[in-house]
Write a structure and sequence with these properties.
34% of the residues lie in helices and 20% in strands. It has 399 residues and is α/β, with parallel strands linked by helices. The protein folds into 2 domains: 268 residues, Thiamin diphosphate (ThDP)-binding fold, Pyr/PP domains (Rossmann fold, 3-Layer(aba) Sandwich); 85 residues, no CATH class. The strands form 6 sheets. The chain has a 6-stranded parallel beta sheet, sandwiched between helices. A 3-stranded antiparallel beta sheet has the order 9-10-11, with no helix packed on it. Strand 10 and strand 11 form a beta hairpin. The longest helix is centred in the middle third of the chain and has 22 residues. 42% of the residues are buried.
């Protein structure tokens, strides 16, 4: 109980500060869901800089539960936002905030005086504010986003009417306005899905919606803040129409509407397919399975038992999210009954079916595994060709 801490842990604790949630360049940081929404634009700016882009961010809206403290968190992080070229300007009301965010996407119309390659925008508001902004959302969504901009509209939904005059669910309003909706289920999802939402908005020209609820934004957890954690894949199965999908001028209303309905939504669906979003992983008695109506090719099963070992949910989650395990998994049994350890990879065979295979040199050569828990330590090789994550951001929980 009173044993000294390992040196690495002691040094880490000595350097921990309350600013880590905004200041750490990589690793893990403890933060709430609201604070993750503050960190999100900083991550986007960091990703853009690494990609050689000089972008800025703009945040506006009107507070309301469960995002009642979002503006205060943004003000408290002012120095971190300014260092990342992000401006926070709350709106007098929801509509003015949304209109201001819409304006950030018009920078490409005036390239002569542009200071940045693009400005990404974040709007926020409570459920009734989403209702009030439907006209702005429709017009801005038809007009489109800029190539290096992108917009997220964040709805604060009060399902149980805890601090509202009526229960609210903004999914339907977003859908009516033509916005695809992201619904994070935990604090890490806010960062991961937020980056996907901006990338989708840039690719397809639509505004992305994000639904937040009290159980998520008011919770806290340790999350990974590496800017490169989310791997964005640009669709290869979507053909851009002449002139692309982004904002332009002049642009007649009927042409805007046709572009939205005939191309932009399908571009968003292509992004979903390419990044394997919107898949449900279901646990049953024998394994974990996935199937998607939009892409039946995602279908796979990860059996709970492999080589005499019951696969822990944390290992299954890592396989689904990254396509392989970073470290060797212990506890497998060979035919002789001796234990061995090995890395795992989720691989797709020639028939398009996904299987969990041992990702070791001896497995690729068709040899038997070295026996003994210490055998094979450090013998892991690079992933074989064809290894790919089956589900981006998939979550698997133990029953």
């Amino acid at each position: 109980m009173n044993a000294p801490l390992p040196e690495s842990v002691r040094k880490a604790l000595e350097t921990v500060t309350l600013d880590d949630k905004y200041a750490l360049d990589s690793g893990r940081a403890f933060m709430s869901g609201v604070q993750a929404l503050v960190r999100l634009p900083m991550l986007q700016r960091a990703r853009d800089v690494r990609a050689g882009l000089n972008t800025a961010g703009f945040i506006s809206g009107y507070r309301g539960s469960p995002l009642g403290g979002y503006d205060q968190a943004l003000w408290a992080a002012k120095k971190h936002l300014e260092a990342n070229h992000i401006v926070f300007q709350p709106g007098v009301n929801e509509e003015l905030g949304a209109t201001a965010v819409w304006g950030t996407q018009q920078m490409d119309l005036y390239p002569q005086g542009a200071k940045y390659d693009g400005v990404f925008g974040i709007w926020y508001g409570k459920g009734p504010g989403v209702d009030r902004c439907s006209d702005v959302f429709k017009h801005a969504n038809m007009a489109g986003t800029s190539r290096h901009g992108g917009v997220i509209a964040i709805a604060a939904d009060d399902h149980v009417s805890k601090s509202s005059t009526a229960p609210h669910q903004s999914d339907h309003i977003f859908k009516a306005c033509g916005l695809p909706v992201f619904f994070p289920s935990n604090v890490q999802d806010i960062l991961d899905m937020g980056l996907h939402a901006i990338a989708m908005s840039r690719f397809s020209g639509v505004w992305s919606g994000m639904k937040t609820i009290q159980e998520v934004v008011e919770s806290s957890s340790s999350v990974i803040v590496d800017p490169d954690r989310v791997k964005i894949v640009m669709p290869e199965d979507f053909v851009m129409p002449p002139g692309g999908l982004h904002i332009r001028w002049p642009d007649a209303p009927l042409e805007q509407e046709a572009r939205l309905m005939d191309y932009k939504w399908y571009a968003a669906l292509a992004y979903v397919r390419a990044n394997k979003l919107n898949y449900n992983v279901i646990e049953n008695r024998k394994g974990y399975s996935c199937w998607s109506r939009e892409d039946p090719g995602c279908g796979f099963v990860i059996w709970k038992s492999k080589a005499g070992k019951t696969m822990p949910p944390v290992v299954v989650r890592e396989l689904i999210q990254t396509g392989q395990t970073a470290k060797q998994v212990t506890g497998f049994k060979g035919r002789s009954g001796r234990s061995f350890r090995a890395k795992l990879a989720l691989m797709q065979n020639e028939e398009g079916r996904w299987r969990v295979e041992f990702d070791e040199a001896w497995a690729k050569e068709g040899a038997k595994p070295p026996e003994g828990e210490d055998a094979g330590e450090g013998a892991a090789v690079a992933p074989a060709a064809g290894v790919a994550p089956a589900v981006a951001g998939g979550a698997v929980e133990a029953a």
